[in-house]
Design brief:
Chain lengths: 120, 112
């Protein structure tokens, strides 16, 4: 069965960086795009960006340009999202989500979420 | 890019039908048939309930249905059940240059 398993919770100081992992299983990793979506406390969902696991192509929301980097390791079927220069407003649950099929424009499987807390 | 507009909360009694609206613009909801809806219970991963405005993934109850008129999409839950209590988010692909997808702020569904 399809699974996206994310890394655990992190506590970071302002200005630090965090790298969240998302390990895929149960399907051919290189075929399906992976997106990163976050939810700050009491807020809605926010799209951050996409990575194409086959070639590693990325597109980021302008809001995160310059601070976010999405990468992948095809040998372990794992996608990574690194966010730098953290501030308190980055405190959120970060989700990876699979795009249902090529250019589907919806997300059929999600990871369990990784809580990132930014606090001094 | 503003979030899509959803009501903060909707409630209904068991067996009733409720509808959640999701209003965007011609750059997102009105311009594409790429509206999807997600059910989200706290502490759990979101679940895809509707995609491409009207389609249900296998395994999703046929009590859930989607529609769209102009710049507003809607999710209807018929025969409301206690298990339907959750947050619901709409999402649309967008032609915006600043991001590819925009979500609504979410609607809390309460079963009375």
């Amino acid at each position: 069965q399809v699974q996206l398993v994310q890394s655990g919770a992190e506590v970071k100081q302002p200005g630090a960086s965090v790298k969240v992992s998302c390990k895929a299983s149960g399907y051919t990793f290189t075929i399906y795009y992976i997106h990163w979506i976050r939810q700050a406390p009491g807020q809605g969902l926010e799209w951050m960006g996409i990575i194409t696991p086959n070639v590693g192509g990325t597109r980021y929301a302008q809001k995160f340009q310059g601070r976010v980097t999405m990468t992948r390791d095809t040998s372990t079927s794992t996608v990574y999202m690194e966010l730098t220069s953290l501030r308190s407003e980055d405190t959120a649950v970060y989700y990876c989500a699979r795009e249902a099929y090529y250019e589907a424009k919806n997300f059929d499987y999600w990871g369990q979420g990784s809580l990132v807390t930014v606090s001094s | 890019q503003s979030a899509l507009t959803q009501p903060a909360s909707v409630s209904g009694s068991p067996g009733q039908s409720i509808t959640i609206s999701c209003t965007g613009t011609s750059s997102d909801v009105g311009g594409y048939n790429y509206v999807s809806w997600y059910q989200h219970r706290p502490g759990n991963a979101p679940i895809l309930m509707i995609y491409d405005v009207v389609n249900r993934p296998s395994g999703v109850s046929n009590r859930f249905s989607g529609s769209k008129s102009g710049n507003t999409a809607s999710l209807t839950i018929s025969g409301l059940q206690a298990e339907d209590e959750a947050d619901y988010y709409c999402c649309s692909y967008t032609s915006s240059t600043t991001l590819a997808y925009v979500f609504g702020a979410g609607t809390k569904v309460t079963v009375l």
